[in-house]
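Structure (tokenized):
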């Protein structure tokens, strides 16, 4: 699991992944461990591997989203909106946990007024159903992108 390596929902996700014996990767806005702890005052003990970007939050968001196969949005604030727009523009499979508060509750409205469609987006208020839908969508997209060349072995 990849997180933005910060407080709030990313921290809860990392804790849950560790509890389930998962491997966690954190993408930090800081340039170093010291800056991560002192300047940004971010947690550090739930990630197995941390990439210190030195790019601040907006630069970190780009690397973070681009390093994933799919993205789940739960609640959130302005940084979540930034991450969503990156994922949307990159055509990533996106899962929105509806009725979770924050930006996630506004994404349906944002999609309506932006008039850019809803391709690669699934929504649900049930976390398990959302993850199941997102996995199915991600697998479908991966299958659709596979190009088989019959001249490779000739």
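Design, position by position:
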């Amino acid at each position: 699991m990849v997180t933005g390596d910060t407080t709030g929902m990313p921290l809860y996700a990392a804790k849950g992944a560790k509890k389930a014996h998962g491997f966690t990767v954190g993408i930090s806005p800081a340039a170093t461990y010291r800056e991560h702890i002192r300047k940004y005052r971010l947690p550090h003990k739930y990630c197995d591997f941390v990439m210190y970007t030195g790019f601040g939050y907006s630069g970190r968001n780009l690397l973070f989203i681009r390093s994933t196969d799919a993205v789940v949005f739960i609640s959130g604030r302005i940084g979540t909106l930034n991450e969503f727009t990156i994922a949307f523009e990159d055509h990533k499979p996106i899962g929105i946990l509806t009725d979770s508060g924050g930006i996630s509750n506004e994404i349906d409205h944002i999609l309506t007024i932006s008039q850019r469609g809803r391709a690669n987006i699934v929504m649900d208020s049930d976390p398990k159903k959302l993850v199941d839908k997102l996995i199915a969508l991600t697998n479908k997209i991966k299958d659709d992108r596979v190009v088989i060349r019959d001249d490779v072995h000739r």
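Reviewer-requested clarification: Residues 148-154 have pLDDT under 50 and may be disordered. Residues 69-144 form one domain.
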